[in-house]
Each structure stands twice: as structure tokens, then as C-alpha cells.
């Protein structure tokens, strides 16, 4: 069965791919808006880890809507959630038998509720799989430490193919760098450089 896994090149989505490859023909899929070319890093990581790679372009109107939500809310959660749901829909509509992501049990965003997962499955005739949904951050970190080589740093310094990076670029262009400091809390990101 062909499975399309939403892929950023980070530790969670890479670990999810490793867990799923025994059961599925996994393709790492970077869904993007074309705002940045950070997807190249995800492609390189996919090659390094031995997975097929595809990129799918998302509807740019969704990026605009996400930025508008972030501006209205004063925080990124609902905007990122909107983009994640759109990305899952896009991957599901592109001929895969199953779709997956690297969401963990304790993620605050993005999340996929049981009802959202069932709706996605019913409308597209796919299986939705979240292989890390039973794992908390500490468990994921221990598994990652045992299997992956990872670069860690502040989100503005780590190049990843994720929604946040593109939304940050769009906001910086429209609102200026100060808006990023105001709306996005400081946190670390990861980029996988190899499998041990």
C-alpha cells in the first residue's frame, strides 16, 4: 500500500517514516506554498534516509487565510492547524492508499481529532495514520537519540520544509520581523541529517 507521509525533514516526521516503512510503501511528501525553497532540505533528508520524496503545492489562498487568522488571534495555533488540515486533504487527494503525519500525543498544534481523521478517511477512501500519537515528547526524544542524527536550534535558524517556516516568511514580508517576535513563541526545531 502506498502511504504519503507529510514530511518536514524534522525528527518527528522522520521517526514516523521509519516506524511505517515495514508495513507501507512510504513516500515522504512535503506540501508547500512555494513561498520558500526550504523543501530542498526535506528532499535531501529523504534521500539520506532512503525514502522516495514528492512535493505537492498547496493552495496559496490557504496561506493567506492562515496568516489572517494568526494576525487576528495574535498567536499561530489556528493558522498552523488550518494549513495542516489542508495539507492532509491535498495528500489524500493525490492517489495514496494511506496518509500519515508525525503528530505526537502531546502536540498542541497540529492535531487531528478522531472525527477529523474519520472524515478524511471517508471522503477520500484512505487510511489516516498517526504512528506517534501514542508517544509523548520524552519517548520520541529517546527513540530519536537512538536512531537519528539531528541538528537542533531556534526555529528561525533551522531550515525545514514546514508550514511555520512559510507562514513566518509570509508574515515577515507583510507585517515585518517584529510581528514574528510578537506572534511566534521562541522554540526549537530539528533537522534530520542521517540515520544511525
Fold and architecture overview:
This protein is of the alpha/beta class and 196 residues long. It has a single domain (2-195), classed as 3-Layer(aba) Sandwich (Rossmann fold), CATH 3.40.50. The chain has 8 helices and 7 strands. The strands form 2 sheets. The chain has a 5-stranded parallel beta sheet with strand order 3-2-1-4-5, sandwiched between helices. It has a two-stranded antiparallel ribbon with strand order 6-7. The two termini are 26 Å apart. The relative contact order is 0.20.
Could you give a quick summary of the protein structure above?
By secondary structure, the protein is of the alpha/beta class.
What is the number of beta strands? Answer: 7
Termini separation: 26 Å
Tell the overall outline. globular
Give the topology string: H per helix, E per strand.
EHEHEHHEHEHEHHE
